[in-house]
Every structure is written in C-alpha cells, then in structure tokens.
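2.7 Reproducibility. Because tokenized structures are sensitive to small changes in the input, we list the exact sequence used for cAMP-dependent protein kinase type I-beta regulatory subunit, including any N-terminal residues retained from the expression construct. No trimming or masking was applied before prediction.
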Amino acid sequence: MASSSSNLEEDESLKGCEFYVQKHNIQQILKECIVNLCIAKPDRPMKFLREHFEKLEKPTTTASKREYVLQGI
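Resulting structure tokens (single pass, no recycling of outputs):
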C-alpha cells in the first residue's frame, strides 16, 4: 500500500511540475535559448546564457512595461 501512496504523490508532484512549466512557458523559453546558444556558439556559454536570461527579465516594449505595471511589479 505504501508504494501506491508514494506513486500517487509522485504523479501529483509531476502534474504540478508540468502545470508550472506550461503556465510560465518554460519549455519554449529554454528551446529558444538553446537554439540561440547553438547559433552564436559563444566562447563563454554561461555568460551568454546569463545575459540571455537577463534580457528576458527586462521589459523591452511599452506593452511589456504596461503588463508589469498592471501586475503590480
């Protein structure tokens, strides 16, 4: 019985993880990041990745800024 309870907890945890990844569009963001990395082939890939994600965090358009304001960020 303990194993079925453990399996249920694992299933729920996995579903929660899948929901989180979908909600935040993580799979597409990572895919685009890896494609950009492979195209650029930088000598310092970690620096490239850090800068890539820093750019994603910054609102680049007025619409993006408006979303941040509306969300209270």
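DSSP finds four helices and no strands in the chain.
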